[in-house]
Design brief:
251 residues, alpha+beta, 7-stranded mixed beta sheet, 7 strands
């Protein structure tokens, strides 16, 4: 049976905008943003060609659903639009969605504790508690930092470095967190920053770490992945907090 052609934004697209806008506001609320830098994106279609991304130089605390740019990752004229996105955003997010269509939501931040960890010689998220064990075997590392991500081959290299992991640590730069939805990606970002904070605090004592064994860390990581509905419930509650205080993100 033929499917009717949608001529305007679908209800799904509208909810996608609201969810992504909420992620920006929450990131600012938690202090994980940086000035008017950093970028989040979300694929709308199954092939990952149509994506939403934040407009250039808009503070995360002011992003609303209607502000988000709708871009075609295969359009070579994107950076010639009057409302072109930030070049670094297009370099990283455009390449990730173009080359990895299965990646739905991409959150790139310079969140304090995770970024601090990327500046250490050993940037691993070591399993010292339940939160850090969540990321056992799930973080890729890109050790090729070369300044601002502006060249197309830099975005392609980052997409390749992600491999089959949901999270990428960018050496001396920050993190990229991906997920099947905004809720899933944001839940990962939330717990990643918590885990990195705990690890940095433990490092600051100067005392030896008490590591969870590899086998138990793998078990805990699996238990996190088999905890259905948690990420959606977490994100729903966070949006309820926003709704009670300032629902303008949904405008």
């Amino acid at each position: 049976m033929a499917t009717a052609r949608v001529t305007g934004p679908s209800m799904g697209d509208r909810q996608a905008r609201i969810d992504l806008a909420a992620a920006f506001r929450l990131t600012a609320r938690f202090g994980w943003h940086e000035a008017v830098a950093n970028h989040f994106s979300l694929a709308l279609d199954p092939g990952g060609r149509r994506i939403l991304i934040n407009p250039r130089w808009r503070h995360f605390a002011r992003v609303a659903a209607s502000d988000l740019l709708l871009l075609d990752v295969d359009d070579p004229a994107v950076m010639h639009r009057p409302d072109a996105p930030d070049p670094t955003a297009w370099c990283i997010h455009g390449a990730l969605h173009r080359l990895r269509p299965e990646v739905r939501c991409v959150l790139h931040t310079h969140s304090p504790y995770a970024t601090a960890l990327t500046s250490l010689e050993d940037s691993r998220v070591l399993p010292i508690d339940q939160n850090s064990a969540r990321f056992w075997g799930r973080v890729a590392h890109d050790d090729g930092y070369g300044g601002f991500a502006l060249a197309s081959d830099e975005g392609e290299r980052i997409a390749s470095a992600l491999g089959d992991k949901p999270i990428l640590f960018l050496k001396n730069h920050g993190v990229i967190v991906t997920g099947r939805s905004v809720a899933a990606a944001f839940d990962e970002l939330y717990y990643l920053e918590k885990a990195c904070q705990q690890l940095v605090i433990a490092y600051s004592t100067g005392r030896p770490l008490r590591l969870i064994s590899d086998n138990l860390a793998a078990q805990v990581a699996g238990e996190w992945q088999e905890y259905p509905g948690f990420a959606d419930a977490h994100f729903r509650e966070l949006k309820a907090l926003l709704d009670a205080e300032d629902a303008s993100y949904a405008a």
